């Protein structure tokens, strides 16, 4: 291969035609782009460089970074987008590559705190009084498992649902963990997992954990992850959004009510006997309920100003909560001497009280305060309007090698949008297209004659327009929507058409839906954003992917509104420089569901007429330029009939 130094000492050789993967791994084919990518990762690890690497579907990016990481002899941290990908990497890809390379490295999988059993809280749950019968059964199952687990990773417990109410009872939060004062500290599952990670040569985490650690370090409060020589961020396009959730602060009914519950429990354990303690606790509970009532019943996100404007009692209810919290802190200070549990509650109450009082202060000019009113409660959040400078600080402080990779980092071939969101300066940028032959394997269909998507009849017209196409494809289609309402409307339309079996997101867990999609003939799967990425259906079970609209974010979101207003004030064009690029990346993710292998064929449908009628539509189409375009439905039907 031209330009690639394939000596036996480098990562490209191991992935090449004479390397061990080609020789011994069934189905593995050497790919030049994968080898080039591996060399860039190798260089980055060696010279502490920062690399942005866009690597199209089918390039084999996981092996491209695993091979140099395993060969480097350095301490490496790999961060993936989700826990599912983390498990897949750790349990499947990593052992496969290590075995073929004949290298032995110590590796550790580390998840966030809420994934591990807290032995102390499990013990405390024995004395819990407000436990329902189903929860009691689940607790018994967890007790039985706790005696045999070596990791304390709750994913081992198959009989208790992941979202069961029992988990918060037996897992810890930063707030309620007793830390080194805990009597179970040495065998605590989280501490054992962190110790293993500290000693391992390769650590696999997810982006949430990475940012949880980064914000702790930023605040100077400690660390969850060890220092490493190199970071690899897979699915890096998700980083700006995940980071947005960790920068800034949040206080909500959940933390306050959790504290109230734990104080009552701690009093049973530590027995301070101070009569006013439970009264002051009840006062806080009442104040938080009244604050919630003052927010109104409408489930929505508001900017703080907007909610204060709509709900005149809000600020005085917040002051009441601040007052009752500080009285609770005073009395907990006295109770704290009675035992570790009450002492920890005191520290938490002081921290929560501080956060509540801060809500009464003025904000700095780069922060927005907003409120999420939900069915059961609320969250009040403070978020940086422009997270770039905060992220720049987080990344520049590391002074190590960093590789950011994903199939979708660019917009029309440009990394600028990703770089600016991440606060990255000039770095090395590489893009390797997919090895698939999109010219032969795909058609991009842009329908004509559909109404404007903002019109009432758009969804109905869309369903009618697609029906002949789905007949030609014999189902085998994903209809991906930008809203739940649109998804429901399409599902109802097709459920009445007996030609197809219709699967709808939310009716079953994702894995079961995908399994049913592949098992049944003539299926249409209707889904929203949860299926636009991380879904991999190979072969001819999936031959049509339809995107109902260009995936712009809701302009009503208060954080987005503030970001756009700030950009406008700075003389930028927020629509073209922020909203369009983000929508292009989301669209590319959705489109990426269609072709997953060399033998896959299919039609991508972008139904939104604005793709053709608006000037910005060009930005979307430029990212799909390898696909032949058509607006001829007959051509589409013929193409599909041949698959
Ligand atoms: S150290 Fe914290 S997480 Fe570990 S068992 Fe104790 S309270 Fe639970």
In CATH, the homologous superfamily of the largest domain goes by the name P-loop containing nucleotide triphosphate hydrolases
**CATH architecture annotation name of the largest domain:** 3-Layer(aba) Sandwich
- pLDDT averaged over residues: 92
Estimated structural class:
alpha/beta
Shape: globular
Which fold name corresponds to the CATH topology of the largest domain?
A: Rossmann fold
Which ligands, by name, code or SMILES, are bound? iron/sulfur cluster
In terms of DSSP E residues, the strand content is: 5-15%
Largest sheet: 7 strands, parallel
Distance between the termini: 34 Å
Count the helices. How many?
27
Across the major sheet, the strand order is 3-4-2-5-10-1-11
**Total E-strand runs:** 18
Residue windows where pLDDT falls under 50 for at least 5 positions: 1-5
What does this structure look like?
48% of the residues lie in helices and 13% in strands. By secondary structure, the chain is an alpha/beta fold. It has three domains: 1-106 and 200-245 and 387-435, Rossmann fold (3-Layer(aba) Sandwich); 249-384, Four Helix Bundle (Hemerythrin (Met), subunit A) (Up-down Bundle); 438-641, P-loop containing nucleotide triphosphate hydrolases (Rossmann fold, 3-Layer(aba) Sandwich). A seven-stranded parallel β-sheet has the order 3-4-2-5-10-1-11, with helices on both faces. The longest helix is centred in the middle third of the chain and has 22 residues, at 314-335. The two termini are 34 Å apart. The model is unreliable at 1-5 (pLDDT under 50).
């Amino acid at each position: 291969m031209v330009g690639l130094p394939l000596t036996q000492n480098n990562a490209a050789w191991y992935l090449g035609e004479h390397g061990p993967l080609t020789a011994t791994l069934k189905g593995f084919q050497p790919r030049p782009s994968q080898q080039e990518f591996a060399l860039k990762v190798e260089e980055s690890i060696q010279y502490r460089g920062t690399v942005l690497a866009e690597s199209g579907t089918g390039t084999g990016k996981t092996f491209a970074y695993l091979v140099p990481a395993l060969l480097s002899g350095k301490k490496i941290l790999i961060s993936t987008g989700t826990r599912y990908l983390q498990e897949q990497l750790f349990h499947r890809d990593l052992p496969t590559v290590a075995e073929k390379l004949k290298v032995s490295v110590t590796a550790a999988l580390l998840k966030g705190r809420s994934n591990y059993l807290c032995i102390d809280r499990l013990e405390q749950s024995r004395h819990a009084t407000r436990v329902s019968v189903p929860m009691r059964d689940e607790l018994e199952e967890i007790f039985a498992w706790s005696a045999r687990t070596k990791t304390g990773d709750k994913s081992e417990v198959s009989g208790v649902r992941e979202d069961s109410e029992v988990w918060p009872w037996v897992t810890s939060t930063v707030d309620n963990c007793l830390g080194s004062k805990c009597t179970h500290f040495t065998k605590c599952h989280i501490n054992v997992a962190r110790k293993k990670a500290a000693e391992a040569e390769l650590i696999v985490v997810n982006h949430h954990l990475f940012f949880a650690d980064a914000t702790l370090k930023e605040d100077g409060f400690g660390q969850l992850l060890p220092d490493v020589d190199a970071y690899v961020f897979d699915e890096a396009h998700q980083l700006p959004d995940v980071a947005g959730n960790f920068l800034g602060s949040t206080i909500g009914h959940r933390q306050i009510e959790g504290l109230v519950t734990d104080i009552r429990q701690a009093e049973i354990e530590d027995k301070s006997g101070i009569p006013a303690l439970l009264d002051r606790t009840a006062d806080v509970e009442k104040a938080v309920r009244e604050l919630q009532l003052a927010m109104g019943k409408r489930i929505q996100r508001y900017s703080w100003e907007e909610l204060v404007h709509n709900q005149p009692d809000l600020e005085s209810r917040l002051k009441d909560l601040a007052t009752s919290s500080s009285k609770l802190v005073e009395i907990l200070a006295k109770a704290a001497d009675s035992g570790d549990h009450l002492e920890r509650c005191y520290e938490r109450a002081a921290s929560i009280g501080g956060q509540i009082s801060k809500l009464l202060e003025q904000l700095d000019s780069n922060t927005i305060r907003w409120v999420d009113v939900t069915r059961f409660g609320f969250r009040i959040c403070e978020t940086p309007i422009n997270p770039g400078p905060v992220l720049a600080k987080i990344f520049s402080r590391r002074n190590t090698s960093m590789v950011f990779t994903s199939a979708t980092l660019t917009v029309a071939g440009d990394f600028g949008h990703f770089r600016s969101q991440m606060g990255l300066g000039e770095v090395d940028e590489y893009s390797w297209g997919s090895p698939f032959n999109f010219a032969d394997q795909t058609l991009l269909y842009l329908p004509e004659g559909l109404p404007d998507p903002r019109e009432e009849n758009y969804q109905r017209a869309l369903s009618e327009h697609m029906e002949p196409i789905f007949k030609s494809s014999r189902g085998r289609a994903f209809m991906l929507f930008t809203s739940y309402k649109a998804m429901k409307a399409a599902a109802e339309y097709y459920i009445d058409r007996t030609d197809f079996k219709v699967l709808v997101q939310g009716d079953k867990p994702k894995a079961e839906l995908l399994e049913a999609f592949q098992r049944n003939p003539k299926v249409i799967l209707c889904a929203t954003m949860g299926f636009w990425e991380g879904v991999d259906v190979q072969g001819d079970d999936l031959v049509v992917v339809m995107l109902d609209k260009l995936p712009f974010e809701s302009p009503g979101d208060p954080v987005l509104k503030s970001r756009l207003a700030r950009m406008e004030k700075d003389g930028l064009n927020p629509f073209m420089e922020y909203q369009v690029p983000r929508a292009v990346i989301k669209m590319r993710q959705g489109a990426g569901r269609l072709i997953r292998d060399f033998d896959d064929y299919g039609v991508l449908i972008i139904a939104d007429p604005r793709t053709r009628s608006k000037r910005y539509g060009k930005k979307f189409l430029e990212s799909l330029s390898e696909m032949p375009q058509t607006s001829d439905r007959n051509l589409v039907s013929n193409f599909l009939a041949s698959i």
